[in-house]
Known about the structure:
The structure holds two protein chains of two kinds.
Chain A: H1 2-45, E1 58-59, E2 62-63, H2 67-71, H3 77-99, H4 101-118, H5 141-178, H6 199-214, E3 218-223, E4 228-231, H7 233-238, H8 261-272, E5 274-283, E6 289-301, E7 304-313, H9 315-334, H10 336-353, H11 359-390, E8 396-399, H12 400-410, H13 412-418, E9 421-423, E10 430-433, H14 435-451, E11 460-467, E12 471-478, H15 510-520, E13 525-530, E14 534-542
Parallel strand pairs in A: 9-11
Antiparallel strand pairs in A: 1-2, 3-4, 3-7, 5-6, 6-7, 8-10, 11-12, 12-14, 13-14
Chain B: E1 4-9, H1 13-25, E2 30-35, H2 38-45, E3 62-65, H3 74-83, E4 92-96, H4 101-109, E5 114-117, H5 122-139
Parallel strand pairs in B: 1-2, 1-3, 3-4, 4-5
Amino acid sequence: MPDEQAWQTRTADMFGQLYTAVWQQLAPLLGADLSLEVFTLSTAAIRDAYPFLDRLVWQPYGLVPGSLLSAVAGEEQAYVTAGCERLLHEIQQLVQTCGGAVLAQRLQAMTERLRHGIDPASEPSPAAAPELVAPPAARGGAEIQSIWRQSLRLYRQVQAQQAALQQARAELATLRHATPISSPGASDLPPSCGDPADDGLARSERFYYDLFELSPDGVVMTNTDGDILQANLQCAEILDFDTPAELIGRKVSEFYVQPERRDSFLARISQQQRIEGQRQELRTNRGRTIIVMASSRLIDYEGRPCLLSVLRDVTERARLRQEMEDFAYSASHDLQAPLRTFEGYARWLLEDYGDVLDEVGRQLCEEIIDDALHMKKLLDGLLEYSRIGRLHTEAVAVDVLQVLEWVQHDLQIEIADTGARITLPETLPTVFYPEVRLTQIFSNLLSNALKFTAANRPVEIAIGCEILPRHYRFTVRDNGIGIAPEHYTRIFEIFKRLHTREDYPGTGAGLTIVKKIVESHGGHIGVESTLGEGTIFWFTIPKTEGAL
Amino acid sequence: VSPLTVLLIEDNTRDIRLTQRAFKQTEMTHDLRVVRDGDEALAYLHREGAYGDAQSAPRPDVILLDLNLPRMGGHELLRRVKQDPRFKHVPIIVLTTSGRPDDVLQAYDAGANAYLLKPVEFTRFTEVLEQLGKFWLETVQLPPEV
Lengths: 548, 146
């Protein structure tokens, strides 16, 4: 791909020039051998994060032309740039450590100026940069080189000791995870921090490390291939492991009940960068099936794209809810059986014994029938309410305009009867939602707007849609009878009504169902109204997939 | 026209009464037989005990089955009848108040030929039975007597 080659050539060319310039500054001062050592030590320091830098070839005259270009082949642009910058920075650090601040500053000023010359878009160098170091006089050349040699040896020793220290800390951390009773104490610093010069960085690393350790939720980091790079103790516990160390290196898809969902998840997160409240079934180390809610972000970790996820085990919560919903479901069915008898027998009385009953007797039979049918509607409402969480309705891409057209078609009789004028916004989004649920929401809100109309004016209903940073906010505005503020909460409670059935038919389940749908998909719902003037119901839908 | 012989398996006396009344209100010629639980249903089909002869237990053209039965549940009975080579071809129509998806799926899995919800409204119930009679008596070809 020409584009790909273009950036690689550009990047290799720029850093090639920068490294060569640094070499040309150091070589006259230190000689080829010591200069080479500065470069290889710097490369070695960051080898783990940027292994491609190991492929650079250095000769006594400097960087072998072309070795940088071939080293970056197959790597990602951001990663390569980060690695090359890091190497430059490491060299400057090393020069500062062994050769002093003045030399390091001059070197930096030189590279900045050169970089600006190559790429004018980069930050210009400070105007008052000190003059570049002139080739040293013969005086002291050998002395300087001897000091440098000494310094580099010390530097290597420090590096080796730090590596040993890091290794020891990592072992300590593993041991600590293996003994769950001990809590992280003040002396347990995270790996790779502890240099007093990096105090701020250490504190910040320490802070995040503590957060990671203390989180009551599982935290796990994977690369884009799904290999687990890091996990906290809680994550290990959720997945039935004794220590986080056992998780490192495993594939995250091992734990998916439906591993094929991992692909669509990756595709979505690489588009959206973040996914929140994703419900996922996992199988643990001991074979238990659990349900977790996970929020994930695509982050840059040491120059590579990685997935940071926070998991919460909601198995028990899901089980309790399932039980409650099962109960509501069974109850609403079992309660229906006697209703059939009430309705059937009352009708039987009317048909076969109507002439032996007087007017009042016949009226009472009619009312039994009427109430039995009303109770049937109440049970249907309860059943529908209990179904919302029960039936897994898969979220799909839904065109809101299409949904509104269906809903208006279903309500065409009510629309014709009231003569309502319904206006829609010019554009409506496509949302990620279960289609049948979105239809229910709009159907309920619109039929309320068509039901609670004011007698003295033409019915006008306006649908609105506002795009918020993370949500869509939909509104259904009517010019009906309105709702007094003290009833704003009550209208969302099941079977609670503000009017008699004679005035306005209905069960009082509609808004309760709408509220449950909206909230179980990560949204909110509310009402604003002026009594006698009209009402606005609003609800939100997350732009990414909502909770559950 | 020979009558449609229907075996109703239902434990609730009120439901039985309403079903009998609804059948009477339909136009169809029918012979409605009632048993009250799974054991009785099996005795009927196998012509055992009180159901020893063709007179007391004519072979049903269709079976109407309530799922909510005492002791042996409707699902179990359905499974046993559908596994019995002598009766598995007799159409079984589940007639129940449960619209629970598990119940519906389980019934069809076990070989139910249709699944009907008992409507609360009696007039609607009569309509449903009317349609049922038309379909099984006039529309479909029932399995021949073996």
